[in-house]
Design a protein that fits this description.
Lysozyme, 3-stranded antiparallel sheet, 42% helix, alpha+beta, 3 strands
């Protein structure tokens, strides 16, 4: 699945928050689920724009996809479904 499709789906399903908040398990989060504990943004200013949140989400997804492919190379051959 192209990353842009995932970004629009996650933005729609998870929502967007311009200010940091505690997620359902108490982790400081911002944007569209960006974990501020695992990946702090020390120079970030708030409120965050939706465009910035989606940029962070794209970066987060690319990191996860890279780890997935590195650990499970066969996953690169899966179709979108």
């Amino acid at each position: 699945m192209p990353v842009t499709d995932i970004i629009s789906q996650l933005t729609r399903d998870e929502g967007f928050r311009a200010e940091p908040y505690l997620d359902s398990v108490g982790i400081s989060t911002v944007g569209v689920g960006h974990n501020l504990v695992a990946s702090p943004l020390p120079d970030e200013t708030y409120p965050m724009s939706l465009a910035r949140a989606q940029q962070l989400l794209k970066t987060d997804l690319n990191v996860i996809i890279s780890h997935l492919i590195a650990n499970l190379p066969w996953a690169a051959q899966l179709d979108d479904v």
